[in-house]
Design goal:
238 residues, alpha+beta, Glutaredoxin, Glutathione S-transferase Yfyf (Class Pi), Chain A, domain 2, 4-stranded mixed sheet, 9 helices, 4 strands, 59% helix
């Protein structure tokens, strides 16, 4: 029998499984696949490669959510095995939209807008005292520099919002009001979409992007269905 997967994530916050969508993605994947795991609250500042989540399993340490899912799929079985080639391609496009486009808009607004960062600081930095305060200054400076290099910080607020709204609408259209994206059982794309919808639907952050998601009844029903099935122990923030 395989030993359990040890998953390292920040503490839960805001009435959702994790403040990081990538951590929710991996943990939801584990729950859908019914893989035995143990979650550990970890200091994100000590993460391998400086990224959360990471896992330890059978002597291996793996960071980066996509690398983790690839390892888990090979080791425990591929959730996406039933998908057709077209469904796999659509799953890839949805994942990339959320992880490589929508994420950076949310990342910018969460870390660089002071009213939003007021919700971030208590979760990521306050537990570590003066060290956390110092780290917060360094992290915000690095976030600002990285997002400027990425390009999203060069957009106006209106341009960033328009880009994220288009992402939400596209994901909603592909989902088409179904309880899962493809077939009858959730697959990897559902773990990803649920992770990002948590951040929009049930956190203290607010704005046009959050409102678009909250007003889309198909997305709300979809996220609530996955929450009730896999995360019933964590009530949503209301």
């Amino acid at each position: 029998m395989s030993e359990p997967v040890h998953l390292f994530v920040p503490p839960r916050a805001w009435g959702i499984p994790n403040p990081s969508p990538f951590c929710i993605k991996v943990e939801t994947w584990l729950r859908i696949a019914e893989v035995d795991y143990v979650a550990h609250v970890a200091n994100p500042l000590k993460a391998p490669r400086g990224k959360v989540p990471w896992i330890e399993h059978e002597g291996r340490t793996i960071a980066d959510s996509q690398a983790i899912v690839a390892y888990l799929s090979e080791r425990f079985g591929d959730l996406d095995a039933p998908l057709t080639p077209e469904q796999r391609h659509l799953s890839h496009l949805v994942r990339r939209t959320l992880e490589e486009a929508t994420y950076f808009v949310s990342y910018h607004d969460r870390w660089l807008v002071p009213s939003n960062f007021a919700h971030v600081y208590p979760v990521f930095f306050a537990p570590y005292g003066i060290g956390g305060w110092i780290a917060s200054k360094l992290v915000v400076r690095n976030v600002r520099r990285n997002l400027w290099g990425h390009g999203i910080a060069r957009y106006t607020d209106e341009e960033r919002t328009a880009a994220a709204l288009a992402d939400i609408d596209a994901v909603s259209h592909v989902l088409g009001g179904r309880p899962v994206f493809f077939g009858e059982r959730p697959t990897t794309v559902d773990a990803v979409a649920y992770a990002f919808l948590c951040q929009l639907l049930w956190t203290p952050f607010d704005g046009p992007v959050q409102q678009r998601a909250r007003n889309d009844q198909g997305l709300v029903r979809y996220a609530e269905g996955l929450r009730d099935r896999y995360w019933a122990e964590i009530p949503a923030l209301t």
